């Protein structure tokens, strides 16, 4: 058997994180944690490179034989994109949260929890056994919960419980479906939770629809779709920028990831049945999120609402069932991770200086802190999908793909693009332009971004720009997943309406 | 006319050795109590208890590998897969619980049991015996009798043996509940309550046995099965007998509406005894319930499945709703144990006993659940004995506030056990829950799985509340973590390791349970 790279990739941060829970010096703990995250980054890039060059990474060992579950990991294009996102963001988050001012728990605990979370997330994105996926999907809640109750704003306890109850509610409904799938699989012969085996079951009809609905509930809570998104603004407002980055940038992707890998692949018939509802709810999310962002008076809530809007675009792309829109959604998942990270971290820099997340407390900051203003502007432009940023490419792919399937829905969704420009520019106008207020002046004069803070933003914005001009490698990475998923669905791209002109 | 002859009983000594050893050690313990001087008793009793349990476990394992099984002791005990698995579990959990019985350091050098149980609370004699540092060591032989009774109970293959075993393990438990060193009135009240209600439920139990005898003409479980499948007469007798017998068994399990003793008894009993009862009694009673319903009454399943389904729903809902408002950790764990009885009942209802080879039966799923629940329970109650105030144990949840700052290890381990109770992945509780849910779904009770999943959600709330109290609140004044000896720490550490082991690498135990998952009729 070949070396189990994927197991090793997940275990590296997990073990490092557990070691960090042991008592040790503060400085040593942070250095060790950061080193572990860098090692994971290097290994993650190597693993994705191996995947791209066609090395077989699949692992499969029996786990609980009586129930037909396997320790089965593999990497596909979408999984590779998500693993890449995770391993890149974690070191940056650790750097951004190096000091953790005013935290109740030690930085050591923060580093430990983030690394544990990273390991669990890698297993989520690589699991090819449904129960294994579910296990790690639920297990990620534990470190996030502790990250929320240990670090963050004054109302963090309530926000953490709200987050947990929403997630557990979705998760336990999903558990019922997972159990039901076992029953179907067992009655068809040998029970197995491997996605490849489950995909061969006949799950059309009412049973399939109910089972699919159970899974979908967990995923729409995770990828916050209106009307079950309400936990996200609270969670983002009360957590530290680093936690919010990981929560929204990485973990919420499990929702859209799960829709593609499980709902679409296992339940073709039921997915087509639910598609009209999902596309309209996606559009509702796009508009609701955008309006929520426009009305937000809190920096962190605003960023959270922009994400609700962006997740709407991803879901729209997924349930439009075209190669372009589905690849676009997956590319969007990657881009949104970096874009949200940029926004949350930039917001974190501002809040650290001003001491409040209240948007009205800022004004004219660009006059005294031009670099901070520039960073916020760039992050904002990525959020509104400015051409040149990679988010533009993915949003365009989603919309153009959806148009071929469903023009009316797409037309309404386009309103979200306009609103996106509005909320970003409103944010920039209120906080950065206009006359410098006294308090903001005191908070920012001579306290522009430090060298470390600038260097944290360089890779994030760099990736957004590079993929904005050269999106082909990333699209090529995720496209095979879109193609195989659509094959499972039995959908083909709609034929072009306008025939090519014969020469 | 036949002449009644006395036939000498034939006993399979080797196969019965695990039970005989435990009961014999109990008898020996009583003798030791009578002949040994005070200062030697504790060490002697403790060594005897642990040695006998370990020896009994060794015999059990040897018998297992020799493949000994069958109906023993002239048709009164069946040694089959579930009996092996549950005996093993009982002996392991019994040994761990007896270790907590032996803890003295955390209590200022004496055990958690009354210095002189016969002295009236608040009397001069009580004060005198406490000053003299006396200890009650009868609790050890009593514990052995209870353990032996439980082992017979879950393996009994006729109803008379079942009833005798029920009394053999219940009577010592009533006594043990009354033996708390501190808060003695509460402890005695708990014992009285337990005794009265227990005696009452024994009455139901006996009546059920009588009716089933009238119906089938036999006490033997297999014979009752034959009568159920063959007979078309006396359906009323059968249903009434089944229901009354069920009441007796469900009382011991702590299922709603026969649960009302649980919180008071759990709170009043000495915490080590509570830990012992919480897992061992439940384990034995579930074992017996499975045997009676699957072996004797299987043919009547269309009658009892809907009844038990309703009881399962009630048990989960009442257990969890009541737990939400508890402010005492022992009461909270009591209601939690009721809720867990409900989760176990979902799989009992499923009753999918006939499955392809290599897949888990309902009984196998339940046995795994009990193992996972048992390790977490033993660990959690052992930790409860360590959180103290100057007067003794601190059981108020308010006193647990900010425990993570005072002792991260104790708080972290308690959090682990709470996560396991809540069924969060990577702990044994999750795999157990998922196993019983699959068993219920396979039996066609998918709606019960959905109810149970929703109940788990609400349940997660109060387990998390304990974690929030320990990790998220300011430390409470006057509470501290007592320094405990290895007798408390060994069960805690074993519980924690086993909880994680069963959560991450459950295959070995699950294979064992699957292999042992079928009853012999």
Secondary structure: elements and pairs:
The complex is a heterodimer of chains A (about 500) and B (about 525).
Chain A: H1 5-20, H2 26-52, E1 59-64, E2 69-73, H3 77-96, H4 107-126, H5 130-139, H6 141-150, H7 156-187, H8 195-198, H9 206-222, H10 231-238, H11 241-251, H12 253-266, H13 268-295, H14 299-318, H15 323-354, H16 370-383, H17 390-405, H18 407-432, H19 438-444, H20 451-469, H21 472-489
Antiparallel strand pairs in A: 1-2
Chain B: H1 13-35, H2 38-66, E1 70-72, E2 77-79, H3 81-101, H4 124-131, H5 139-155, H6 159-177, H7 184-216, H8 221-230, H9 235-253, H10 261-268, H11 271-296, H12 301-324, H13 329-350, H14 362-384, E3 387-389, E4 392-393, H15 403-406, H16 408-422, H17 428-442, H18 446-472, E5 480-481, H19 486-504, H20 507-515
Antiparallel strand pairs in B: 1-2, 3-4, 3-5
Helix pairs in contact in B: 1-2, 1-5, 2-3, 3-5, 3-11, 3-14, 3-19, 5-6, 5-11, 6-7, 6-11, 7-8, 7-9, 7-10, 9-11, 10-11, 10-13, 11-13, 11-14, 12-13, 12-18, 13-14, 13-17, 13-18, 14-16, 14-17, 14-19, 14-20, 16-18, 16-19, 17-18, 17-19
């Amino acid at each position: 058997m070949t070396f189990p790279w994927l197991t090793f990739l997940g275990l590296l941060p997990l073990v490092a994180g557990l070691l960090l829970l042991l008592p040790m010096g503060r400085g040593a703990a942070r250095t060790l944690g950061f080193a572990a995250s860098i090692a994971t980054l290097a290994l993650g890039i190597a693993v994705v490179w191996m995947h791209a060059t066609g090395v077989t990474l699949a692992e499969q060992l029996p786990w609980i034989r009586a129930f037909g579950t396997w320790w089965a990991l593999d990497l596909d294009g979408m999984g590779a994109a998500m693993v890449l996102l995770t391993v890149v963001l974690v070191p940056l988050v650790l750097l951004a949260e190096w000091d953790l001012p005013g935290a109740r728990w030690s930085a050591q605990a923060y580093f430990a929890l983030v690394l544990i979370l990273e390991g669990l997330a890698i297993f989520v994105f690589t699991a090819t056994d449904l129960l294994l996926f579910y296990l790690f999907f639920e297990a990620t809640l534990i470190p996030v919960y502790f990250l929320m109750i240990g670090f963050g704003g004054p109302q963090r306890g309530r926000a953490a419980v709200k987050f947990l109850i929403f997630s557990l509610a979705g998760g336990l409904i999903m558990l019922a479906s997972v159990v039901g799938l076992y029953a179907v699989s067992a009655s068809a012969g040998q029970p197995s939770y491997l996605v490849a085996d489950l995909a061969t079951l006949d799950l059309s009809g009412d049973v399939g629809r109910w089972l699919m609905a159970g899974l979908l509930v967990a995923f729409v809570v995770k990828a916050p779709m209106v009307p079950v998104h309400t936990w996200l603004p609270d969670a983002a407002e009360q957590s530290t920028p680093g936690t919010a980055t990981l929560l929204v940038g990485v973990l919420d992707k499990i929702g859209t990831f799960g829709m593609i890998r499980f709902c679409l692949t296992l339940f073709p018939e039921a997915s087509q049945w639910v598609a009209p509802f999902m596309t309209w709810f996606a559009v509702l999310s796009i508009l609701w999120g955008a309006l929520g962002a426009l009305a937000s008076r809190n920096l962190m809530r605003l960023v959270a609402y922009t994400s609700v809007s962006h997740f709407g675009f991803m879901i729209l792309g997924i349930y439009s069932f075209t190669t372009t829109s589905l690849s676009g959604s997956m590319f969007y998942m990657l881009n949104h991770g970096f874009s949200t990270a940029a926004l949350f971290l930039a917001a974190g820099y501002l809040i650290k200086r001003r001491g409040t997340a209240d948007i009205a407390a800022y004004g004219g900051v660009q006059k005294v802190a031009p670099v901070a203003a520039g960073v916020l502007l760039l992050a904002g432009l990525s959020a509104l999908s400015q051409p040149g940023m990679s988010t533009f490419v993915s949003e365009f792919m989603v919309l153009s793909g959806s148009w071929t399937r469903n023009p009316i829905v797409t037309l309404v969704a386009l309103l979200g693009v306009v609103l996106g420009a509005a909320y970003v520019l409103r944010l920039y106008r209120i906080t950065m332009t206009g006359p410098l207020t006294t308090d903001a002046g005191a908070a920012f004069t001579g306290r522009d971004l430090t060298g470390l803070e600038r260097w944290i933003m360089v890779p994030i914005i760099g990736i957004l720009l590079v993929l904005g001009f050269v999106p082909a490698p990333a699209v090529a990475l995720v496209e095979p997943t879109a193609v195989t998923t659509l094959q499972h669905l039995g959908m083909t791209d709609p034929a072009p309406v306008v025939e090519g002109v014969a020469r | 006319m036949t002449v009644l002859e006395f036939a000498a009983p034939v006993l399979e000594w080797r196969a019965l050795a695990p039970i005989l050893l435990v009961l014999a050690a109990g008898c020996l313990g009583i003798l030791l109590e009578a002949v040994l001087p005070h200062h030697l008793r504790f060490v002697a009793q403790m060594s005897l208890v642990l040695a006998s349990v370990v020896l009994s476990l060794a015999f059990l394992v040897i018998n297992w590998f020799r493949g000994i099984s069958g109906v023993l002791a002239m048709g009164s005990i069946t040694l089959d897969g579930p009996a092996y698995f549950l005996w093993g579990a009982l002996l392991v959990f019994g040994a761990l619980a007896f270790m907590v019985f032996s803890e003295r350091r955390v209590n200022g050098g004496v055990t958690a049991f009354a210095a002189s149980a016969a002295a009236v609370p608040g009397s001069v004699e009580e004060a005198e015996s406490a000053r003299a540092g006396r200890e009650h060591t009868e609790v050890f032989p009593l514990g052995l009798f209870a353990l032996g009774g439980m082992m017979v109970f879950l393996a009994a293959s006729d109803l008379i043996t079942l009833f005798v075993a029920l009394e053999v393990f219940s009577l010592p438990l009533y006594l043990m509940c009354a033996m708390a060193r501190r808060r003695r009135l509460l402890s005695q009240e708990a014992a009285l309550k337990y005794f009265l209600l227990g005696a009452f439920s024994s009455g139901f139990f006996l009546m059920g046995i009588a009716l089933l005898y009238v119906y089938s003409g036999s006490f033997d479980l297999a014979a009752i099965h034959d009568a159920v499948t063959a007979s078309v007469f006396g359906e009323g007798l059968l249903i009434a007998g089944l229901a009354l017998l069920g009441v007796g068994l469900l009382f011991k399990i702590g299922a709603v509406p026969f649960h009302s003793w649980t919180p008071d008894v759990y709170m009043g009993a000495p915490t080590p005894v509570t830990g012992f009862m919480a897992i061992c009694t439940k384990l034995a009673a579930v074992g017996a319930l499975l045997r009676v319903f699957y072996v004797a009454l299987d043919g009547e399943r269309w009658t009892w499945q809907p009844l038990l389904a309703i009881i399962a729903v009630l048990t989960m809902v009442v257990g969890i709703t009541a737990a939400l408002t508890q402010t005492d950790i022992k009461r909270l764990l009591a209601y939690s144990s009721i809720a867990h009885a409900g989760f176990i009942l979902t799989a009992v209802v499923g009753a999918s006993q006939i499955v392809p080879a290599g897949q888990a039966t309902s009984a196998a799923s339940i046995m795994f659940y009990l193992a996972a629940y048992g390790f977490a329970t033993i660990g959690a109650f052992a930790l409860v004995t360590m959180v103290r105030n100057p007067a003794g144990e601190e059981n108020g949840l308010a006193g647990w506030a900010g425990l993570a700052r005072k002792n991260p290890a104790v708080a972290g381990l308690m959090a682990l056990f709470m996560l396991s109770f809540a069924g969060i992945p990577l702990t044994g509780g999750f795999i157990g829950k998922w196993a019983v849910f699959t068993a219920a779904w396979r039996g066609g009770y998918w709606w019960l799985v959905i109810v149970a999943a929703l109940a788990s959600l609400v349940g997660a709330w109060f387990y998390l509340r304990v974690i929030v109290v320990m990790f998220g609140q300011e430390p409470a004044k006057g509470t501290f973590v007592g320094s405990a000896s290895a007798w408390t720490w060994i069960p805690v550490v074993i519980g924690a390791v086993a909880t994680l082991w069963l959560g991450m690498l459950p295959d070995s135990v699950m294979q064992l349970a699957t292999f042992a998952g079928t009853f012999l009729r």
